[in-house]
Write a structure and sequence with these properties.
Length: about 950
Amino acid sequence: MTERTPATGTEAGSAPKGLRIERVFSTPGVHPYSEVTWESRDIVQTNWRTGEAIFEQQGTEFPDFWSANASTIVATKYFRGALGSATRERSLRQLIDRVVHTYRRAGEQYRYFATPDDAEAFEHELTWLLLHQYFSFNSPVWFNVGTPAPQQVSACFILSVDDTMNSILNWYREEGLIFKGGSGAGVNLSKIRSSKELLSSGGTASGPVSFMRGADASAGTIKSGGATRRAAKMVVLDVDHPDIEEFVETKAREEEKIRALREAGFDMDLGGRDISSVQYQNANNSVRVTDEFMRAVEDGTEFGLRARTDGRVVDTVAARELFDKIAKAAWECADPGLQYDDTINDWHTNPESGRINASNPCSEFLSLDNSSCNLASLNLIKFLADDGTFDGERFERAVELIITAMDISICFADFPTEAIGQITRDFRQLGIGYANLGALLMATGHGYDTEGGRALAAAITSLMTGASYHRSAELAGAVGPYAGFARNAEAHRRVMRKHQAANDALRPVGSLDASVQKRATAAWDAVIKTGEVNGFRNAQASLLAPTGTISFMMDCDTTGIEPDFSLVKFKKLVGGGSLQIVNQTVPRALRKLGYAEETAEAIVEYIAEHGHVIDAPGLRPEHYEVFDTAMGERAIRPMGHVRMMAAVQPFLSGAISKTVNLPESATVEEIAEVYLQGWKLGLKALAVYRDNCKVGQPLSGGRTKAKDAPAEQTMIEYRPIRKRLPKTRPSLTTSFSVGGAEGYMTSGSYPDDGLGEVFLKLGKQGSTLAGVMDAFSIAVSIGLQYGVPLETFIQKFTNLKFEPAGLTDDKDIRMAQSIMDYIFRRLALDHLSFERRAELGIYTAEERARQVETGSYLPADDSVSESESLKSTDTEAGPAATPADPNVHTTAELVESISGTSVDAPLCFSCGTKMRPSGSCYVCEGCGSTSGCS
């Protein structure tokens, strides 16, 4: 190992004097900004369904190597200040300086640095890493640090609830405050007495499931109110709670209700008008299982359910039957997931201060009740050298610097409640992690579901956590250990030895992971030695978050621990249009595997056309596994995901945000086996998702008939009913001109409101064009009368491009890409409410002018928060490639069109683009929005 300057800068017998910061990335005497080329960019984000610009900022400044996608996401989500105002941020320099300068000032204030030169080195090193996309803090840091807003730096929170009404109502309040700020929270409801127990007044208790209704409604209201991102929450119940069966079946029963209501004609799609009438849809549910219960499942024995008030057994169940009910419910609706209680608490560094009862919404942060965690993630591909080796030394130095910054942030951070603030300051939980693992494995020639791939991932994770705790021990020597360390010293050191033992048990598969593990071994030796003397500054150090938005900020190909989603990506171009390109990691992997340039080009061309590598010309079958992906023809098997999680879990303080995706054909037994193996392999938490198990997702096929329906059963067939217009009805006639072509549109409505017919006059009577427009009008009118929503027509026909196109004579729609584009945007403005138009990105001229002036489309009394108006899209121009199908709008839809495999994901609430899985959450490739909390 390279010799290093002592980190604490202390002499024997002297008081701590702060850290010495070694320059590894930056150059002495040269500011990192001076080493890159900057360019001016105009950021424009449009709604893909309408072509309408919903965000625009001219003259922003970014390094020339940042993609258009990354710069768009940063400008729309992280730049602070009102659009159009002189105080709004316009340069990446301003954003990084706002954050880094705050961290440096706090570091100096709390005496983290030995000298002013060390403080400057810290500032430059941190700036260099952020500027070059080596890592990113979690979103709340970019939202809040250095602004007049509360300095909230944490993305993940865990709350607590006791068996009192005051505590339950306080839970509602605390969750609301956290959701309002765009973060997520989790809670374990097991302290609340069951519906099988009595109240002190003599009545029967309601039980925790009943109180979940109120919390769910609160989350849904705050979510739809529109904060920085959607509310995210986790609800946990212990497996021995008497109401566990009701909890397990809660969301599955609601899913049945959704299906019944959809069949009856209600709009039950995600974001539909009627979905809000269904309960429990705003939380992830998890059952906290014990080793005792899992052994009873294996042995086929009974298991006792215990009263919350006195611990007595009030009921017994067959453990295997309850476990099967959990698997069946997960098969039906993806909930509940499992959290393995004994494993979680066996790796707990602070057992003397309380048990770990719950997690954040994505299950990666597991800590004490009323605690929080701030996250940061490294971009692994940045540490891959040109010769194909992993630069472990630079990786280790980056980890140490980032851990230092994350710990400093706790000194000045604000928290939503005093209890959370106190616990976080006392235990200083951190959550360093990484993104781009899938891309790194492919680039180094490793299959994701292979021994070599798992060995490399485990070695890197071990080095990351070892370096983190080593720096934590050094920080303890410089500024003192965390307040709760003395009480938990032996337990904390015991967990450090468990991590070290897991590292020693690793068996290298190749020279690459062997070199990383060697460095990790040295790091863990330093952890044990330094921690024995100094203690530790942080109770927790690492976890693996989904890294949705920030992975796009870093231009990552893959998120968190995930494999590559598909071998082709969808890129939107500035000014419209799209390109379908093969992942840039693929050519790099082919070079690593030794393929000639001509052969690699042929393979890439084949992938661009087919979306997979099967039968690609010149590609050896033994290399297929390197290019296996989450979706498509060679999708990674479910247990491949579980085994990867198991490989890295022993080297994380927390857990892993990841959902094991299964095909629609998966059985209840297969899900049960995944849950059982997750326990046996030592995971802390596990969630599954079976394609098309939810109604509120895009559907891949029609309803399946009951297999065993009796022959005499009467089958009810539901048919749409035409609602004809009355003889006399209100109508609106509009004259228009598009690109010089003139026409008339008459729209007739039902007396009780609602469009029922559209007639278009374009071209001379008897001409082909006039006849086509008449036929088109009749088709649309009949569709409306049969109940096809107007929004569906608008989504399909806006943004179509053909001549005539161009300027119009309509003040609300100055440009149209075609006559169809104009007609259906005009219909939206005439017949849809503002809320429904806003979902489609269609606004009047007055509303757009108001948005430029105030940052909101609504009048002052109804304006939404500034953060809601900051939407974004991917406008990166890629290399020339085969144009994508114009009906495809994301990689998720692109891979579906190529592979024929359904991609189950919701539509983005910000820009309407189809999202794709990222850990246990979803992320939008268009604007970077996530459904989770990282």
